[in-house]
């Protein structure tokens, strides 16, 4: 198997509504861009982001850029501009460096909900 045949990483893309109440501590500029209607924002879900061991540093950010680019195509077609993901506490800073903002803990308090506006 040559180096071109190896999977370096993967991510999944989906659509998942995001329940949002105005009293959550979402920055006002982000909340206003979320098009919240009846406490629900339509959102894309970036899930299952993973890279193979030994992949060059920075490859995760390349994958996130690719995912956001794909979601941007959807935005042009459907108008949805919110991308969400759920992550562990240890990953909040990393995703913030990729343009995501923390909005709250999930209802089970195990993961954190983060959003980016595209």
Describe the structure.
This is N-acetyltransferase domain-containing protein. InterPro entries: Acyl_CoA_acyltransferase (IPR016181). It comes from Candidatus Methanoplasma termitum. This protein has helices at 28-33, 59-78, 92-97; strands at 9-15, 18-19, 40-41, 44-51, 82-87, 101-105, 112-117. The protein is of the alpha+beta class. The chain has one domain (3-117): 3-Layer(aba) Sandwich (Aminopeptidase). The strands form two sheets. Strands 1-4-5-7-6 form a five-stranded mixed β-sheet. It has a two-stranded antiparallel sheet with strand order 2-3. The longest helix is centred in the middle third of the chain and has 20 residues, at 59-78. The protein is globular. The N and C termini lie far apart (38 Å). The mean pLDDT is 88.
Which terms summarize this structure?
Aminopeptidase; N-acetyltransferase domain-containing protein; 118 residues; Acyl_CoA_acyltransferase; five-stranded mixed sheet; alpha+beta; two-stranded antiparallel sheet; single chain; 7 strands
